[in-house]
Specification:
Radius of gyration: 16 Å
Low-confidence stretches: none
Number of helices: 4
Structural class: alpha/beta
Strand content: 25-35%
Amino acid sequence: MIEVRDLYDYSDIRGLTHATMFVAHVARATLVLGGSQSVDVVNSSTLSSTSIRRRRGGGGLVLLRPDDIWVDWWVPADDARWAKDVHASSYRAGGWWAEALDGNLEGVLSVHQGSLTGDPSLRLVCFAGRGPGEVFVDDRKVVGLTQWRVREGTFLSTVFPREDTRVITDYLVTVPEGLTEALPSYSSVSLDASSLLDRLAELSGPWERRDVFLTD
């Protein structure tokens, strides 16, 4: 049986009274399941040294690697950046990313407006769909986004992969027809991660910052 741990201590997050920006770091490849996603989609024989976690919120499976940039924001319900409208929260976070990435990537940046779209059979993988607030360069998704909403606030979860996302299909029990073609096929993104994180914090802040290190 595959052991799945939470990405965070979510009870701790719900107790935070200050707006907080989380930056997650992984020592090795880590599969992250959506909140309601079954671990049965993962082929346990392919995991080897890859660990598996679960985040709160919707969306599909994400493969997080050491060079990827995973940024989450906790927005308490009494913070000015909190929005009752679910899509408005996503659009705002996507806008932060788009502005921070502007000038760093070739192509036309856009933030998806509207509801979740795409073939439902492909949505088991985050980067094969198109959701509110997610960031695209031309037709390639470059920032995946989901959120978890509770009485105390909203938790916005985002990831910017810096390597080919198609590798995730190696971990699946079944690869739906068309999934590989639906995933972004870039091979490497070169930018200064530290400067990008500082820019994100500047555009979206102020925040308390927490660095989270996943070592297993």
